[in-house]
Amino acid sequence: MISKNIARNPLRSFFPARKVSLAAALLPLMAGLTQAEPLQEVIVTAGFREMPVDTFPASLTVVGPDAIAGRAAQHLEEVLNLAPNVNFSSGASRGRYIQIRGIGERSQFVDPINPSVGLTVDDINFSGVGNAGTLFDVEQVEVLRGPQGTRFGAYGLAGMVNITSQAPTDTFEGLITGGAGNHGHRELGAVLSGPLTENVLGRLAVQRHSSDGFINNVYLDRDTGERDELTARGKLRWLVSDDLVVDSTLFYANVDNGFDHFSLDNNRKTLSDEPGRDLQESLALGLTATWTGAEAFTIKSTVALEDTRLEYSFDEDWTNTAICDGLACDSADWGFDWWYSSTDSYRRQRDGAQLDVRLVSSEEGRLFDAIDWVAGLYYYDKREKLRRDFFDWDLGAQSSMNSRYDTRQIALYGELSAPLGDKMTFTLGGRAEDFVGKYRDSRAIRARPDETLWGGEARLEYQFDESTLIYGLVSRGFKAGGVNGEALATAQKNNFDDSVIAFLSDRLEFETETAINYEIGFKGNYLDDRLQLRAAVFHMDRDDIQLRGWYNEGPLFVGYIDNGSSGRNRGVEVEAQLVVIPALELFVSAGYLDTKISDFVVEGDDGLIDKSGRDQAHAPNYQYNAGAHWTIIDNLRARVEVEGKDSFYFSDSHDAKSSTYNLVHASLTWQVDRMELRLWGRNLTDKDYATRGFYFANDPRDFFESEQAYVQLGDPRTYGLTVTYQF
Fold first, then answer.
1. Which of 161, 319, 336, 355 is deepest in the core (most CB within 10 A)?
2. Within 13 Å and on the Cβ side, how many CA atoms surround 17?
3. 469 alpha carbon, distance to own chain's centre
């Protein structure tokens, strides 16, 4: 017999039962949440003082060793998408050009560039030579977003990437690792670390990674775009006394990669007869002395020397001399060849020397017993030589040109931090930098940029409670101007119209760019440090924005840098990590970006074209990364993640765009005593996605009549097994 209550309202009995069952289902989850360990504290090293990431008052992402290993990442390009509003450009064997919040270079050919995004490896400046961003034995990668005018000066207009390798240990340890995968992936590495004497610690890490490449050269009937990357790093920590520690790093990278990534059919099947190379050999020495002998301050002094040899070459026509055989463009039908055949080679030699001396106040050295301070001197001297070998169509023979670009930067910087009550702190920092450059080349182009640049930051921090930090800041970054020597010479060589030559003559030099960033941010640790939240909202005004333009006539083209009057970059960045239960950690990051160009014109076939109001290049409106790290049993864990990115323009001068894409990555790790086996895969759905694009006519099969977008595709599905033995 049915009771009157149930008969009158059967839902009353249904929902309470569901509530009970739901509560019962959630009890283990809630119990696990209360038993879960807190997230590990991450220390940021890129600031003037080391501090936890949740108290660092700026927008940044820290990629640690677990994320690097989980992706089986060999190079910086394979972890950059973990950071919101960070993109990269290839046009080479690796994505070695970085954009942060829509700002950054996308290529380099003849003319020198001053990078918008700086790159340091163990405090050594590798800005502009991104193939040094290998990740073997790296402790963490810090991606700082927004102008870094106080900390990093002329190379920090958009932000900074700081790579820190593992430090020597006070006990003996080491590892041997090796692996194999598809596309001929091979890796072998070893690490030794420990005390050498009573007061000297050492660490040596060596790894070689190689693959057959992802390109099928149909004409040569072999794989191209191969990778062969060797990294060696030796570190010493000398405990001179209780007050003095000297850290030294000797770094060597030898990257010998192939470059054959552009196809007339926009796939991974190429037709070139002379595939190019992307080589970098770097040797660098860094010495950092930290002295704590004074009561009022600590002195940190860094001296670094860097020597780099680069070669970047490519088959300029992307084809071969038999491309028209049997087709409409066959020379038998025309009496002349429609195809052309040439190569372009750029060999650079770069030497750099830097000095950074910094005084950082201690608690006893605070001004008026309250104000923390920093004062520093920075010196950077760089000499860069170029030899370009190319086919001169006027002479009908191979030709060459040479250039040299020497720059010197001297900067004074400082920072003051004063408490405004128990919970609020006001910080004011600034940097004045004298930038001097000297450019000359074999075509009699001369330029001497010489200017005093300045940047800084004003920041207000409010510690709402022990778990929550709110900050607001205004920062100013800068980037030196430069010269377009190659653009004008190329236009004259190609016999472009007088109006084009006049247009480029007016742009022989371009002006310094500045950016002012307004930002409000939030950082919080909750649920007993099992939940981390970070968010930032920013608006950036760019003045004299430096943009790269292109002018095309069929297969002939010329690139140059010009100044638009202004630009706008604004957006939102969010990151979160949550330990749900002891065995399950979730993570997510997302960025929204809105950019605009003002008063920028390019030379087109029918005159000047105004690009004002358009989005900036390589600035997708959104991107994200989300995933989970799951400990299945004590010695078996899995990592699964998906990342996505909106479409973006390839260039500021044409309207060709990439497609939106989503990539899936995963790894499964099995720990057996001291041995670890990791099965990993990237881009598991084998999605085609573009990392670089150009727009011009380059196909003799249609008589060079159709200008179109040509894209470089990112890595296809890759997978492998890595075995590591620790001792």
1. 161
2. 6
3. 27
Structure confidence at residue 630 as a pLDDT band (50, 70, 90): very high
Q: Is 21 exposed, middle or buried (0-12, 13-18, 19+ CB in 10 A)?
A: exposed
Assess contact for 489 and 109: CB atoms under 8 A: no
Q: Where are the alpha helices (DSSP H) in 425-524?
A: 485-493, 498-505
For 557, left (φ over 0), alpha (ψ -120 to 50), or beta?
A: beta
Sole residue written with tokens 């690097």: 68
Would you tell me how many other CB atoms lie within 10 Å of the CB of residue 391? 16
Burial 326-335 (b: 16+ CB within 10 A, else e): eeebeeeeee
* Residue 627 C-beta-side C-alpha neighbours within 13 Å: 22
How far is it, in rounded angstroms, from Cα 79 to Cα 83?
A: 8
Helices (H), strands (E): how many in the chain?
6, 43
Task: Give the burial class of 465: count Cβ atoms within 10 A of its Cβ; 0-12 exposed, 13-18 middle, 19 or more buried.
Answer: exposed
DSSP, residue by residue, 519-584: EEEEEEEETTTTEEEEEEEEEEEEES-EEEEEEEETTEEEEEEEE-SEEEEEEEEEEEEEEEETTE
| pLDDT attached to residue 609 | 82
| Tokens of residue 647, six digits | 């479409």
Residue 164 · residue 122 · CB < 8 Å: yes
Q: How many CB atoms lie within 10 A of CB 260?
A: 27
Regarding beta strands 215-217 and 269-270, do their DSSP bridges make them parallel or antiparallel, or are they unpaired?
parallel
- The Cα–Cα gap between 256 and 347 comes to 14
Q: Which two tokens stand for residue 367?
A: 């001004």
From CA 265, how far away is CA 271, in angstroms rounded? Answer: 10
Q: What distance in Å separates the CA atoms of residue 597 and residue 306, rounded to the nearest whole number? A: 36
Q: What band does 35 get if pLDDT is binned at 50, 70 and 90?
A: low
CA 614 to chain CA mean position, Å: 24
User: How far apart, in whole angstroms, are the C-alpha atoms of residue 116 and residue 98?
Assistant: 8
Nearest to 572 by CA among 621, 613, 533, 526: 621
Among 462, 473, 376, which residue's Cα sits nearest to residue 428? 473
pTM: 0.92
pLDDT at 23 over 70: no
Say which CATH superfamily domain 43-710 falls into: TonB-dependent receptor, beta-barrel domain (2.40.170.20)
Q: Which two tokens stand for residue 116?
A: 């918008």
Neighbours of 322 (CB within 10 A): 11
What is the residue extent of each domain of the chain?
4-35, 43-710
Q: pLDDT tier at 176 (50, 70, 90 boundaries)?
A: very high
- Between 177-191, 254-268, 590-604, the lowest mean confidence (pLDDT) is in 590-604
Confidence label for 483 from pLDDT (cuts 50, 70 and 90):
confident
Phi, psi of 26 (to 5 degrees): -80, -20
Crossing angle of helices 498-505 and 485-493, in 10° steps, is: 170
Query: 159-165 and 117-121: which strand pairing?
Result: parallel
Q: What is the pLDDT of residues 62-71, one digit of tens each?
A: 999 999 999 9
What would the pLDDT profile of 281-329 be if each residue is shown by its tens digit?
A: 999 999 999 999 999 999 999 999 999 999 999 999 999 999 999 999 9
Are the CB atoms for 513 and 105 separated by under 8 Å? no
